[in-house]
Specification:
This protein is mainly alpha-helical and 414 residues long. Helix content is 47%, strand content 10%. The strands form four sheets. Strands 5-9-10 form a three-stranded mixed β-sheet, covered by helices on one side. Strand 3 and strand 4 form a beta hairpin. Helix 6 crosses helix 7 and helix 10 packs antiparallel against helix 11. The relative contact order is 0.07.
Length: 414
């Protein structure tokens, strides 16, 4: 149509008018081209004449009819897909999904093991880009079987671990599909994670900053306090780097950016002393918060309710075995009581997991800090639980390390 307006072409041949357009607005534009630009429009089959009122009326009727058929077809397909989704059926393209066999139902154990190993590490603070680099280094094949050393990116790892399919939930148009009662629809495939395991890792990944949109790999930090340090003179973000040290060595430093890069260039500090000081503060703060949390979290309050439900189940079973109640009354009652018991047990399990996490995760921080497997991502995640920033104030030339010139900005406690 644009080329016809420009005069590049002066004629248009169509198999028929309905094969050229389904939107009446497009037809009106074509009619204007015929009337105002003298464009010749011919149909290879059927009758098509846009130079007469009768021909224009016939074309409009045919396009309107085909438009209605197209909308009806689209609605039927959409309705069919939604009904299939409500039944938990698989959908999507022909490509196999990472973690499942080609039928998209059975788990593929040699891939699921990587998902189960990666989930707790992501929860512990390892970033998706770190996991992607490790998978590339280990040459873990993707779902297509490719081993290129570059097939895994931070974005792909995020997409995999935030897919509700991992806990068996069915999605439709990007959202978890729910039935009439508001409950998530379960798919007809095996799930590698429980609902609690999936919600735990997806909640962590939601707070990660978006990676580089060009390649999804992001820019990993090399220095412990790079996400937190700010200049005390101009408040701009400082960067980690190195400078020559004694006997040809290199010394890590934190330095304010140059004026051309948004900083003042007037503040720098050796990184080792700052890292050591902030690490000691964070470990001490984590221990203090741990004791507070342990005191604040009471035992599970519904223990008696669970015992009452279990007692009712036992009484109902005894009454049924003694033929005091019929099966038509016993089995619906048993289903209701067992449903209550499952809900209470799940709630108790979540509560106990939270108590265990609070009692172990932070008390072990000092020991974990020296563990080679405790990655830089995990250390920065631990610091982020306590600090929002570390302000470094300028020091005089030759001045020794002074903690008063390091100003940690503590995160407000909930």
């Amino acid at each position: 149509m644009a080329e016809l307006r420009r005069g590049t072409y002066n004629a248009l041949a169509l198999p028929n008018i309905d094969r050229g357009m389904r939107d009446p607005r497009d037809l009106e534009d074509l009619i204007d081209l015929v009337e105002h630009y003298g464009v010749l429009v011919v149909g290879m089959t059927g009758y098509l004449d846009l130079t007469t009122d009768a021909g224009i009326a016939m074309a409009r009727n045919e396009v309107n009819q085909r438009n209605l058929e197209s909308r009806n077809l689209s609605r039927r397909i959409s309705t069919g897909k939604r009904r299939a989704a409500l039944k938990g059926r698989n959908s999507g393209g022909a490509n196999r999904l990472f973690g499942w066999e080609a039928d998209k139902k059975r788990l593929r154990e040699d891939e699921v093991i990587h998902l189960r190993e990666g989930r707790p590490r992501l929860v512990a603070g390892v970033k998706p880009r770190t996991l992607a680099r490790e998978w590339n280094a280990r040459q873990i094949p993707s779902a297509t079987g490719k081993v290129t050393g570059r097939q895994w990116t931070a974005r792909i790892v995020e997409q995999i671990f935030t897919n509700p399919r991992l806990c068996g939930y069915k999605t439709y148009l990007g959202e978890v599909l729910r039935d009439r009662d508001g409950n998530p629809v379960r798919g007809e495939w095996e799930a590698p994670f429980t609902v609690d395991e999936f919600e735990e890792v997806s909640a962590v990944l939601k707070h990660y900053p978006r990676t580089n949109p060009r390649d999804g790999r992001g820019h990993p930090y090399k220095y412990l306090l790079s996400p937190f340090i700010r200049c005390g003179r101009c408040t701009s973000k400082m960067r980690g780097g190195s400078r020559p040290g004694p006997k040809g060595t290199k010394v890590a430093v934190y330095a304010c950016r140059s004026t051309s890069d948004g900083g003042c260039g007037g503040c720098s500090r050796t990184a080792a002393k700052v890292d050591e000081y902030i690490t000691a503060l964070v470990i001490a703060e984590h221990k203090r918060r741990q004791f507070v949390k342990l005191g604040d979290l009471p035992p599970w309050p519904n223990e008696q309710a669970l015992k009452d439900v279990q007692s009712q189940i036992k009484e109902a079973q005894d009454a049924y075995e003694a033929r005091q109640i019929s099966g038509s009354r016993f089995f619906p009652m048993l289903e209701r009581l067992e449903s209550e018991e499952r809900a209470l047990r799940a709630d108790k399990k979540r509560h106990e997991a939270e108590r265990a996490q609070r009692s172990e995760a932070i008390l072990d921080l000092e020991a974990k800090w020296e563990d080679p497997d405790f990655t830089l991502d995990q250390r920065q995640a631990a610091i982020a639980q306590s600090l929002t920033a570390v302000v470094i104030h300028p020091a005089k030339p030759g001045q020794r390390f002074d903690p008063d010139l390091i100003d940690p900005v503590w995160r407000e406690e909930e």
